[in-house]
Amino acid sequence: MKTILVVDDEKSVRDSLKMVLEFESYEVLFAENGHEALRHLTTASIDLILLDVKMAGMDGLEVLQRVRQKRSELPVIMISGHGTIETAVEATKLGAFDFLAKPLDRDKLLVTVRNALQQAKLSEEYRQLRESVEGKWQILGESPKIKEILAVIERVAPTDVRVLITGENGSGKELVARALQRYSKRSSKPFIEVNCAAIPSELIESELFGHEKGSFTGATAQRIGKFEQADGGTLFLDEIGDMSFRAQAKVLRALEEGTIERVGGNKLISVDVRVIAATNKNLEEEIKKGNFRDDLYHRLRVIPIHVPPIRERREDIPILIKSFIDDVCTRNGMARKTVTDEALKRLSSLEWRGNVREVRNTVERLVILSPGTTIDVSLLEAGVQGGHGEFEEILGQGGTFQEFKERAEAAFVRRQLEQHKWNISKTAEALDIQRSHLYTKMKRYGLMKEGESGEGDQ
User: Fold this and answer.
1) Could you give the angle at the alpha carbon of 160 between the alpha carbons of 271 and 150, nearest 5°?
2) Given this chain, do its domains 3-132 and 137-308 carry the same CATH topology?
3) Which of 67, 70, 119, 171 could form an S-S bond across to 307 if both were Cys, CB 3.0 to 4.6 Å?
């Protein structure tokens, strides 16, 4: 049942709306003034507000503004016996769903209420879908450093200010860039990413600014560059410290003048682009070496955000690991797995020189290789976390996902047998399976202690 809050200082209006709305099976709450209405927001679950414009003390438009600050998604329908076009326009600008004049027409009121609730439902479904799709781009962590980054993103994202993100490889610089775009006024516009380190220096200008047909050998057609593709949206220049000096000059000009020129062209093209840059290099050192322009550095670094390596925020590692486990299990249609406290402690103590990226890759290996529903220390001791040796050999053999799982299981069972000196009872206990099941797996994979043909139990 949907709950509607009616805010009106006239008892006759409240009584009339109560009768109409309750007949349609809505739960109705009432407030005589703005202050009482705002209190209801903190104590009750409200799905829609019918809000009178003219009230003593705090008027409806001021209440609407405060509602928007507290719950921006909540639909509000304004009602007034002294409605003017100017008031309706102002209410709409403040976020009102609709504006109804008194005396209220019953049918129009109910249609407007149903439409407002339906739109709110669709908006919530879209939000959930978007969060699901963008789940892998979420910034995970509860450490003070992550909270500080999130606070900066919240303040900076709605603006068009340029941001320079620094940090080691795999630390999550792209996550910060995408969060800045996701919460910006440009969120519905393109997010175009360019990895400056992955593009040869002779092609970077064409990639960024496009080219005209015949402008150089191989330019068989006109090409639209990344700046034009990002028009109205956000351009993310990743690893900008690797950009050629010549291209840097053109980027600087684009930032200063808001125009670009395609390679081989003679026409200035206006572009409206918010630029976010990232690098794992110390650009101040690169400036001293003559590899990076000082003026471009200061243009890009209006707001600096440094993403610390994972070893400097170890309290976030358990959060990352548990989230990645759920993600891997969901993507691969596997039963949900858990990690023991001891294994979590061991994983949190590792160096993780590859940062968050290495954590994710390691968790994926652990989830796939664990034969049961629990990831414990024995799996770590088998050398899985390093991602080298036997595991890499298993990966390199290719085949289907089922074939890979069988090879991995065979390798893991063999490692456990070796660690327990081929004692079947102890190995079965360590694997948390029955001895008969272990025998079945050994027979299936042809596992036998070298030089022996017996069970190996002692």
Assistant:
1) 140
2) yes
3) 171
